[in-house]
Amino acid sequence: MKMMKVEELRSLRIRCAWDGCRQSFQGAMPRDWRWLVSYWARAPQLALGPAPEIEWDCDAALCPAHAHALSQCLYPIVVAPVEGQVR
Ligand SMILES: [Zn+2]
Predict the structure, then answer these.
(1) Nearest to 13 by CA among 85, 5, 22
(2) How far is the CA of 82 from the centre of ligand 1 (A)?
(3) What is the pLDDT along the chain (87 residues), one digit of tens a residue?
(4) How far is the CA of 72 from the centre of ligand 1 (A)?
């Protein structure tokens, strides 16, 4: 797996991963977009970085419309607040 430098990631135009969607952004993620991450690990990982025990399936983004569409396909997931995070 090739790891990208932070500067390379910031210069990329990030596209919505939903098949057929043409929405995108560059730079800081707009407020209503969402990261879509899928991985296997023996236990949930709070710090998602390169680690040999994590098998990555997906690291992408969804535009607001498709983040909402995906959430409608899943049962309501309650996310535990992270210490120090403002909601
Ligand atoms: Zn989209």
Answers:
(1) 22
(2) 27
(3) 566 677 776 788 999 999 999 999 999 999 999 999 888 888 887 776 666 677 777 778 999 999 999 999 998 877 777 676 655
(4) 14
Give 70 Cα–ligand 1 centroid separation in angstroms: 10
CA of 77 to the centre of ligand 1 (A): 21
Domain count, the chain: 1
SS3 content of the chain, % helix, strand, coil (to 5): 20, 25, 55
Dist CA 40 CA 78 (whole Å)? 20
Q: Is residue 58 part of a domain?
A: yes
Ligand 1 center from residue 83 Cα (angstroms): 30
In this structure, is residue 85 part of a structural domain?
no
How many angstroms separate the alpha carbon of residue 39 from the centre of ligand 1? Answer: 21
The pTM (predicted TM-score) of the whole model is: 0.70
